[in-house]
Specification:
This protein is of the alpha+beta class. It has 32 helices and 28 strands. Strands 12, 13, 16, 17, 18, 19, 20, 21 and 22 form a nine-stranded mixed sheet that branches. Strands 10-28-27-26-11-23-25-24 form an eight-stranded mixed sheet, sandwiched between helices. Helix 5 runs parallel beside helix 25 and helix 23 packs parallel to helix 27. It starts with 8 loop residues before the first strand and ends with a helix. Pfam families: Cation_ATPase (PF13246), Cation_ATPase_C (PF00689), Cation_ATPase_N (PF00690), E1-E2_ATPase (PF00122), Hydrolase_3 (PF08282). InterPro entries: ATPase_P-typ_cation-transptr_C, ATPase_P-typ_cation-transptr_N, ATPase_P-typ_cyto_dom_N, ATPase_P-typ_P_site, ATPase_P-typ_TM_dom_sf, ATPase_P-typ_transduc_dom_A_sf, ATPase_P-type_domA, Cation_transp_ATPase_P-type.
Length: 921
């Protein structure tokens, strides 16, 4: 009798405090006020209302309004808010100078940027929600004493469910009955070997080790049973890990850290220059409000307002391209983070391999046979094929007109092998099964056939061979002598060295004896079967591309070291004679420093590792300064996925907890898709630098007019509103077109960029601020003075703000900057390659149709600003004569020619620097 106090309910969870594994089945049912026939429908409905649905609830995160608000208060935005406030303040003290329009324009910039960034991130999250697959969709549950198929969400504590091989466990359950039930705990523990489950009471220390518990998210791979649900939804082990994962903090990706750093750099630079020139204006005796307008202009000219939306949209476009490569990005910065990866830690099963067991080799009658079997060997192999065909615990299901089997993939492979036997072999009626368990390491089935009753047996060779007294040979069945035993042991070692999992198959005739385990003796050895989970065909090429790209690939698997080494060699991951293979047992005895030294090996593999050990490896690599991408599919992989610089979850075989912790989900579970995504990630970083160069180049021609205005007695050549027209109007679409550039074919032949490399590097700044920018400034100021000269203006003569000549001259300066930016757009397609090579088939615009659209929009916008009444009114311009446009062309052509000369010099220098290496020096 159970002590009622031990069954006192926990009101918070709604289930008994008592450890349910310690109870016998009858008392377990009583503890949850259930029966062997399950709950009534009415009681189940009442409990569902009390305990909720059986699903993993998403922890309530940051409210959407707060996520949106955050987009308007980052450092970049704060600088613009300051500039807008200064503009409104200037308008208040000196109305009619257009400062209110400027302030409103800057506020509009902030709102557009923030809303756009928020919307892209929100869309990425919603795309991930469409992928979510929580728990098994349908379960068989006893309700009102009858077996019923229900949605898994409808389960409540106290329900009795039927579990068969191939089923996923829908909730935490206590076994009531079991017949040969084996469960894979891989999603929780990472252990691929199925565990036997029995209904007897247990004193195990925790749920994972209790042999009478079935935990949500695990899979029954053999046998069947009846189980009592005692925990659902977030109260399951699955749910607890999900809660921990969701409440963990997310670090910044490399790109996020870099953009934050870059934004602060540019904003501080803009403010510093603005303050410096405000003080300079005061020293020169400029009026206070005029000087304030000047300072605001300096700040606005040096803050690249289009940078953040350009980065966001470039990342969003990359996510769309990567989705077509079967890689779903959950967080936008993860796109570029993968491109920065220096190490990929990958699972084996399902990622490097097909996760489909296949028989590769047989050893029958002293002969090794590769598949497919030669027709002249089928008859000799018949006894082995019969054992493979009949000795299993699979479940046949009908899928339309097709009959398939569910259960242990290894048994599926054996049945497929056995089907090569003749179809007229006669009907075999199974009358008994001796189930597999980890102690016996074998299973047997007894069948009635036309020729009599036979026992078929399969198991580990080292277990089955001692039970055999005879063996199949070329001359028929012969007594098994020591020489034959040694040949079988040698054949087993040869198969294992190939990375094959080896099973021995045997049979015997059964007379009228009672069916008992002792019948598994005096067996006839039918042969050995070597089974493999074959590598994906595209993986060797993907590994080769990783090696060429300077990315180290490390396999972390729960499989045997010999199997891991053989697969690694087959896919090209290991090429040396003596790779470093570290087992889970070895890893337990390594200190942090010893592990980091071990990771210095050119080729290193980890076998028989657990999830917490995978996390140790990731952390050790990060301490070495590596940018780590890690793959995972189980609940137990979530910590490593969360800790990695980019976590990659499996979309087919992965759990929801793994997907929730990951930055990217592989829709096809294929390692080759990771490599394609790396290429896209590298392209994103390169493209960001391209449009960063493009955007920053226009800062100099926007700044120089203000310097000339202070230093020289001339009208202001470019107004603040015209600066915004460049940064947020004409420049936006061309910058986005650069963000959509295809990956450079050479990008996977270069090592990853150094972790310390900044987006805003000195070579980039020098090219933008000291080369391209001054050329554009020269064109803008030249056109400004040229138009003034055509109008008869004399140096030193003031011009009213609304004078037609002044409006025409400022419009010419603005138009010249835009035309120069068109040339700059073509020059920025590559920092070193010729304009003709960066296109396709000699076409400078080839390979990226968005460039053409960007240029067309850029020219149409400037035409609208110069020639339409609305554009002239908003931006303070006037119509230009055709000669002004013709005068801009030599400057644009000059920029392109000078850029070609600079790129040619860069290429020659690069070849000269690489020559000693190429010569073997």
């Amino acid at each position: 009798m159970v002590n009622p106090e031990r069954l006192r309910p926990d009101r918070r969870l709604g289930i008994p405090i008592v450890r349910i594994a310690q109870l016998v089945p009858r008392d377990a049912l009583a503890s949850l006020h259930s029966s062997s026939g399950g709950l009534t429908s009415a009681e189940a409905e009442r409990r569902r209302n009390e305990y909720g649905l059986n699903r993993i609830e998403r922890i309530r995160g940051e409210p959407l309004w707060r996520q949106l608000a955050r987009e308007f208060v980052h450092f970049f935005a704060l600088v613009l808010w300051l500039a807008a406030a200064m503009a409104f303040f200037a308008e208040y003290h000196d109305p009619g100078q257009g400062m209110a329009t400027l302030g409103a324009a800057i506020v509009g910039v902030i709102l557009i940027n923030g809303s756009f960034s928020f919307w892209q991130a929100y869309r990425a999250e919603r795309a991930m929600a469409a992928l979510t697959r929580l728990l098994p969709q349908q379960v068989t549950v006893l309700r009102d004493g009858r077996a019923t198929r229900l949605h898994a969400e409808q389960l409540v504590p106290g329900d009795v469910v039927l579990v068969q091989e191939g089923d996923s466990v829908p909730a935490d359950c206590r076994l009531l009955e079991a017949d040969g039930l084996r469960v894979s705990l891989a999603t929780l523990t990472g252990e691929s070997l199925a565990q036997t489950r029995t209904p007897e009471a247990s004193e195990a220390a925790d749920r994972l080790s209790a042999p009478n518990l079935l935990l949500a998210g695990t899979t029954a791979v053999a046998g069947h049973g009846r189980a009592l649900v005692f925990a659902t939804g977030m109260h399951t082990e699955f749910g607890k890990i999900a809660r921990l994962t969701q409440t963990g903090s997310d670090g910044h990706s490399p790109l996020q850290r870099e953009i934050i750093h870059l934004s602060r750099q540019l904003a501080l630079l803009a403010m510093a220059i603005g303050v410096l020139f405000f003080l300079l204006g005061q020293a020169l005796g400029l009026p206070l409000w005029g000087n304030l307008i000047f300072a605001i202009g300096i700040i606005v000219a040096n803050v690249p307002e289009g940078l953040l939306p350009s980065v966001t949209l470039a990342l969003a476009m990359a996510t769309q391209r990567m989705a077509r490569q079967n890689a779903l990005i959950r967080h936008l910065p993860a796109v570029e983070a993968l491109g920065a990866a220096t190490v990929i830690c990958t699972d084996k099963t399902g990622t490097l391999t097909l996760n489909h067991m296949t028989v590769r080799q047989l050893f029958v009658a002293g002969e090794a046979l590769d598949l497919p079997l030669p027709s002249d060997r089928l008859e000799r192999c018949r006894p082995l094929l019969d054992v493979a065909r009949h000795c299993h615990s699979l479940r046949e299901v009908s899928e339309g007109s097709r009959l398939s089997v569910l259960g242990d993939p290894m048994e599926v492979a054996l049945v497929e092998l056995g089907r090569q036997a003749r179809d007229d072999a006669g009907h075999a009626t199974r009358i008994h099964e001796f189930a597999f368990d980890t102690t016996r390491r074998r299973m047997s089935t007894v069948h009635d056939l036309a020729e009599g009753r036979l026992l078929y047996c399969k198991g580990a060779p080292e277990v089955l061979l001692p039970l055999c007294s005879q063996a199949l040979t070329a001359d028929g069945v012969q007594p098994l002598d020591e020489a034959q035993r040694e040949r079988l042991r040698q054949a087993q070692e040869d198969m294992a060295a190939r990375g094959l999992r080896v099973l021995a198959l045997a049979w015997r005739r059964v007379g009228g004896e009672a069916l008992r385990v002792e019948l598994e003796s005096e067996l006839i050895h039918a042969g050995l079967v070597g089974i493999e989970d074959p590598p994906r065909a595209e993986v060797p090429e993907a590994i080769r591309r990783c090696r060429g790209a300077g990315i180290q690939v490390i396999m972390l698997t729960g499989d045997h070291p010999v199997t891991a080494s053989a697969i690694a060699r087959e896919i090209g991951l290991v090429t040396g004679a003596a790779p470093r293979v570290i087992s889970g047992d070895d890893l337990r005895h390594l200190s942090e420093s010893q592990l980091q030294f071990a990771l210095d090996a050119p080729e290193v593999l980890f076998a028989r590792v657990t999830a917490d050990q995978k996390l140790l490896v990731v952390e050790a690599l990060q301490r070495k300064g590596q940018v780590v991408a890690v793959t995972g599919d189980g609940v137990n992989d979530a910590p490593a996925l969360k800790r990695a610089d980019i976590g990659i979850a499996m979309g087919i075989g992965g759990t929801d907890v793994a997907r929730e912790a990951a930055d990217m989900v592989l829709l096809d579970d294929n390692f080759a898709s990771i490599v394609k995504a790396v290429e896209e990630g590298r392209a994103v970083y390169a493209n960001i630098r391209k449009f960063l160069t493009y955007i920053l180049s226009s800062n100099i021609p926007e700044l120089v007019p203000y310097l000339a205005f202070v230093v020289l007695p001339i009208p202001l050549p470019l107004t603040i509103i015209q600066i915004l027209a460049v940064d947020l109007g004409t420049d936006m679409l061309p910058a986005l077109a650069l963000g959509a550039e295809r990956p450079d074919p050479q990008c996977m032949q270069r090592p990853p960029r150094p972790r310390a490399e900044r987006l805003l590097s000195w070579p980039l700044l020098a090219r933008a601020y000291l080369f391209l920018g001054p050329l554009e400034a020269l064109a803008g100021m030249s056109l400004f003075f040229l138009v003034l000269a055509w109008g008869g203006w004399e140096y030193g003569t003031p011009l009213p703000r609304l004078d037609p000549l002044y409006l025409q001259a400022t419009g010419a300066c603005l138009a010249a900057i835009v035309v120069m930016q068109v040339a700059n757009l073509l020059a920025c397609r590559s920092p070193t390659e010729s304009l003709l090579k960066s296109g396709v088939d000699g076409n400078p615009l080839g390979g990226n149709p968005l460039l053409l659209w960007g240029i067309a929009c850029e020219l149409l916008l400037i035409a609208a600003i110069i020639y339409t009444p609305l554009g002239q009114s908003l931006f303070g311009t006037a119509a230009l004569p055709a000669e002004a446009w013709l005068a801009m062309l030599p400057f644009a052509l000059g920029l392109l020619l000078l850029e070609e000369a600079r790129k040619g010099w860069m290429r020659r220098r690069r070849r000269r620097d690489a020559a000693p290496v190429a010569d073997g020096g």
